[in-house]
Amino acid sequence: ITRKLGLDHIDKRMESKIYKRDMAYNNWILALTYRLKDSKQFESRLSSAENDFKQMIKTETEKESKRLIEILGFFSAIVAFILASVAISNPFSFEDALMFNISLGIILLIFVLVISLLFSQKDTWKKLIIAICLILLLMLIVYQFAWS
Q: Which residue, among 40, 115, 16, has the nearest Cα to 75 in the 3D structure?
């Protein structure tokens, strides 16, 4: 608001008779006009840079939050595997416990891949193919275990 009023004030001064007669006053008014216009242009550029920076920070924050969810899913899968392995070590025979651990490991790998597929845009086809292969391997192990 102040700059707009300043430019209006300068325009009124430029129309006066003093402006037309006095060269020093003329130069001073022109310099002031250019300085106010430069200030306005600088503020618009600064505002644009500020908005770009805010958008970049927002995008980076969203990427990192998705990555954090992936890492959290991976470590929860590790904890689940360790706790389940300890829980089944006593009541089952070695072969049954081994098959159970392998099956649990594959299920948790599928879990990690699904989380990664949901929250990542990179290499989704590779992860999907790996998840399908792991599901097929799990089905083969379950089938083998059921018939033995």
A: 115
Q: Tokens representing 1? A: 């608001």
Please state, in angstroms and rounded to a whole number, the distance separating the CA atoms of residues 88 and 100: 8
What are the C-alpha distances in Å from 4 to residues 8, 13, 27, 37?
6, 14, 20, 10
Q: Helices 94-119 and 124-147: crossing angle, nearest 10°?
A: 160
Condensed to tens digits (0 to 9), the pLDDT of residues 68-98 reads 887 888 888 888 888 887 777 777 787 777 7
Q: Look at the block and give the residue holding tokens 């829980």.
A: 87
Number of residues that this document lists for the chain: 148
Q: Which residues contact 25 (CB under 8 A, 6 or more apart)?
A: 18, 19
pTM of the model: 0.52
pLDDT digits (tens, 9 = 90+) for 21-56: 677 777 777 787 788 888 888 888 999 999 999 999
Which residue matches tokens 């009541």? 91
DSSP label of 122: S
> Is the distance from CB of 31 to CB of 13 less than 8 angstroms?
no
Closest listed residue to residue 142, CA positions, set 99, 101, 113, 105: 99
